[in-house]
Amino acid sequence: MRTSILVAEGDPDFSEVIIETFSSNEYYVRAVSNIEDAITEIEKEAPDVVLISDDLSKGRTEQLSRKLHEKRGTAEAPALILLTGESKLHQILAFNTWVDASLRRPVDPVVLESTVESMIQRRKKPSHANPLTKLPDAAALSKEIDRRALTGENSSMRAFRFDDSQASAYRRKYGELKYLTMVKLAAHVVANCALTHGGKEAFVAHRGTAEEPEFIVLIDSKRVDEFERAACEEFATNSELLYDKKDRMEGCLIELDAAGKKNEVPLISLVAEPAGEEKVAHPRS
């Protein structure tokens, strides 16, 4: 069966580019130019994938998500947000858990098709998910490692986490809720970069707690460096917006210790390092 894609995009020229990208017999594409028509199309026939422009989605994604749940039950369609240059990713993620991936315009058609295919493949692999980030949990990670060991797939295993002192300082100043938004942002960035740089075989899981998260990635060894660099840079760009203007200008948080001495704590960054065995690979028996 062909993959059904619903495109909600206000720019007719860009919409045409998307339609052309998925013009093969593998896809069936419907395109609309506003949220109302998108909801109508979902009511007619729930798509396998939703591609939506963020400037159309503001304030209405919850309604779209609810319609998808009504039509597909618990099997929500994966959703990709197409971002404009002015879009603030952290604001989108703060209020929406339905977004699987995001791409900022201009979008390379090859990357777009690869990302959509990766989203579809990931949804075909049922697993327990972390309730905050919606990523597969530690149990699912163990199963995936065992599966790759049996099939002989060569993968590098990387971990992403926050620096403890930076994370603690952020929580003290901004509170738990905003810190959890920071965690969601990190999860999205790591998963999104794994999709765009690692392809459909990349696997991302959330290990650890919400307060001390660790994101584990299984990815082709040849793509590790490019992926790590992209994830850390994208997180640094977006995470600054979760600080107030004064802290952004200072480039750090300034705290006072017990003696009243100023202590400068850098803004939160992602720390990337090998996780366990650097490679997950076993020969086929």
Can you tell me the overall shape? globular
User: Any idea of the CATH class of the largest domain?
Assistant: Alpha Beta
What strand line-up does the widest sheet have?
Answer: 2-1-3-4-5
CATH topology of the largest domain: Alpha-Beta Plaits
Order of helix and strand elements from N to C terminus: EHEHEHHEHEHHEHHEEHHEEE
Characteristics of this structure?
single chain, Rossmann fold, five-stranded parallel β-sheet, 45% helix, 285 residues, disordered C terminus, 11 helices, alpha/beta, Alpha-Beta Plaits, four-stranded antiparallel β-sheet
Describe this structure in words.
It is a single chain. This protein is of the alpha/beta class. It has two domains: 3-123, 3-Layer(aba) Sandwich (Rossmann fold); 138-280, Alpha-Beta Plaits (2-Layer Sandwich), CATH 3.30.70. The chain has eleven helices and eleven strands. It has helices spanning 12-21, 35-44, 54-57, 61-72, 89-95, 109-123, 138-151, 164-174, 176-198, 224-239, 245-250, and strands spanning 3-8, 27-32, 49-53, 79-83, 99-104, 155-162, 203-208, 213-219, 252-256, 262-266, 270-280. A hairpin with a 5-residue loop joins strand 9 and strand 10. The two termini are 34 Å apart. Mean pLDDT is 83; it is low at 278-285.
